[in-house]
Amino acid sequence: MSLDRKRQFVEIAYNILKEEGPEGIKIRRLASEMDCTSTVIYRYFDNVEHLIALASVRFFKDYLFEFRNMVNDPQIITDPYGLNLKMWDCLAGYAFKDIPIYENLFFGKYQHTFGAVIFEYYQLLPEDFKQNFDGYSSSILFNDDLFQRDFVLLRRAAALGVISVEDAEVLSQIECHVFHGVLLKYKDRYKDPKIQKKAAEEFHWLLYDLAEKYR
Q: What confidence score (pLDDT) does residue 130 get?
């Protein structure tokens, strides 16, 4: 099985996602563009959702670079509670510009294999990641559950006495649900830059208000 061919499928799918969103991905269309049969595509991907998930990771690339820098910043890493907020803010800055992509990645069919999808993409296109990931950042990035990824940081904050372990677990759940709720609220209007800004600001306000109540 050719990795170059698999990369080509991912590249074509990414370009369609960028212009049309997930609804534009059709197996027959991809087969036509690659001058092959649909059967060939299924040799590389479990199903169309698998291909969409892989291609969607490309949208995540710039966030991953910022994420890696934040985790490596000695001034930020000593404040896991603050780092948690900064990581959410950073993610929101990208997510509300491409809501269908991020909503599908975090809450779609592949939400519970998200870490595996990122790892698969990382193996397929390592050049898209400018730095390697250490054990700590990998434990967050390659975790298959968004709630657990959030809890990793809040649990560290609990170890420092900033928040109780019980509250850390509850807060990680609430933060994820608020994020999903704001994604869904603006999903049909996200292409308007004013809406993107409004959504990010609304999420920021809700996130920081929650954080202050639980600190």
A: 61
The Cα–Cα gap between 35 and 79 comes to 52
CB 90 within 8 A of CB 97: no
Spacing of C-alpha 203 from chain mean position: 16
Q: Which of 33-47, 66-80, 85-99, 201-215 has the lowest mean pLDDT?
A: 66-80
Report the alpha-carbon angle 211-142-80, nearest 5.
Answer: 30
**What amino acid occupies position 25?**
I
User: Under a CB-based contact definition with an 8 Å cutoff, are residues 168 and 154 in contact?
Assistant: yes
- pTM for the structure as a whole: 0.87
On whether the CB atoms of residues 10 and 51 are closer than 8 A, the answer is yes
Q: Cα(79)–Cα(86) distance, rounded to whole angstroms?
A: 10
Radius of gyration of the chain (CA): 18
pLDDT of 84 > 80? The answer is yes
Q: According to the model, what pLDDT value does residue 212 have?
A: 94
| DSSP output for 160-178 | TTSS-HHHHHHHHHHHHHH
User: CA torsion, points 114, 167, 134, 119, in degrees to nearest 10?
Assistant: 0
Closest CA to 176 of 132, 210, 199: 210
